[in-house]
Amino acid sequence: DMEGLQPRARRACRVILWAARIISAILVAFILLFVIGESVNSRGSSPSASEWVGLALFPFGVCAGLLVGWRRQILGDAVSLGCLAGFSAGLIVVLGDSDVPPPILVFAAWAILSLIYGVATRARDTHADVAEPATAAPPG
Fold first, then answer.
1. Residues 68-89 as b or e (16 or more Cβ within 10 Å = b)
2. Distance of CA 103 to CAs 35, 52, 65, 99, Å?
3. Which of 57, 128, 132 is nearest to 88 (CA)?
4. What is the four-CA torsion angle of 13, 18, 24, 26, rounded to 10 degrees?
């Protein structure tokens, strides 16, 4: 996976990968605290249809992307970023405010950095595979 890198770069990549995973676990736990708190302290009113759409994007869609990212990094990051973009667009449409809330920027920053790492390592691995094709085993 990271064999073509110098030891220092390999170590840095591993630190970035595990930092992204730890941050994703913290973010999911943080969101779950809000979801659990809201469900326990519910005042009996159900969310409206537009609120359900918003909830599907954030926090549920973002959490799904964070969790998928543990196994399929680029797909998980794309899901998280897509849900964040949809949620932000919904806020702009519903509220008429073009300012993106700071919590959205925290999630977006994490997902963008993680996506850059995933794409860079995949591109490097793909390039290494093309540059050094596997040799066929001799017959016999």
1. bbeeebbebbbbbbebbebbbe
2. 15, 19, 16, 12
3. 57
4. -140
pLDDT recorded at residue 1:
52
Distance CA 72, CA 69 (A): 5
Token look-up 């016999």 returns: 140
For position 139, what pLDDT does the model report? 52
Confidence of residue 61 (pLDDT cuts 50, 70, 90): very high
Q: Count the Cβ atoms, other than its own, within 10 Å of residue 41.
A: 7
Contact assessment for residue 94 and residue 62, using Cβ atoms and an 8 Å cutoff: no
Q: What are the tokens at 134?
A: 């596997």
Question: If you ran DSSP here, which 8-state letter would residue 59 be given?
Answer: I
State if pTM tops 0.70. yes
For the purposes of burial, counting CB atoms within 10 Å of the CB of 20, is it exposed (0-12), middle (13-18) or buried (19 or more)?
buried
